[in-house]
Write a structure and sequence with these properties.
By secondary structure, the protein is an alpha+beta fold. It contains 6 helices and 9 strands; from the N terminus they run αααβββββββαββαα. Strand 1 and strand 2 form a beta hairpin.
Length: 187
């Protein structure tokens, strides 16, 4: 049995509503997955193909999704959240810097982000983001291969529920993209 199949089986066995135990269990399984020798065919293929995104598993019963991403050095993904979902990033190769942000509302009612800090996530390490957490990512040593484990399909979530928030830089501040849209588009 491949380490990928073991990962899926173990996550299915511990899956349930969001709790500390479920998150810790999934993170532990990702930690184990990161120990996979590059000689395992599925991982060797990922390194060879170096696709920007590849779906590794979509669980039809529980809904969780495991994606693999190959990111070139310097790739920056602006601040965003994951809507109603939680996510765990796991770096298999390379290094990613992940900044964390707090959302604040000014006296004018406008929302902006304040950067709280950043973490370098190196090969063999994982990083968890729960509901409402806002972060950015930048590949600082690449190409990096990382796994993104999500509680649900974020693309579907974004298209249907519209709960994911992306931020754009405006006058030196990160603000919700929706705040920059013309008034008639915001409603």
């Amino acid at each position: 049995m491949s380490s990928l199949n073991r990962f899926v089986e173990h996550v299915q066995a511990i899956w349930g509503p969001l709790s500390s135990a479920v998150v810790a269990g999934c993170q532990q399984q990702l930690d184990e997955l990161l120990k996979t020798p590059v000689t395992e065919p599925w991982l060797a293929d990922l390194h060879q193909q170096a696709l920007a995104q590849q779906e590794m598993h979509r669980d039809p019963q529980n809904g969780f999704v495991l994606l693999a991403h190959t990111e070139p050095e310097g790739l920056y993904r602006p601040p965003h959240d994951h809507g109603r979902s939680w996510v765990i990033y796991a770096v298999q190769h390379g290094e990613i810097e992940m900044g964390t942000y707090a959302k604040v509302q000014g006296s004018d009612g406008q929302v902006k982000l304040v950067k709280c800090g950043s973490t370098r996530v190196s090969a063999g390490q994982t990083q968890v983001y729960l509901l409402g957490d806002i972060h950015d990512t930048q590949c600082i040593s690449g190409p990096a291969l990382l796994f993104r484990f999500t509680e649900r399909d974020l693309k579907k979530e974004d298209q249907e529920a519209r709960t994911l928030t992306r931020y754009v830089e405006q006058d030196g501040e990160w603000v919700p993209a929706s705040q920059c849209a013309p008034e008639w588009l915001r409603s």
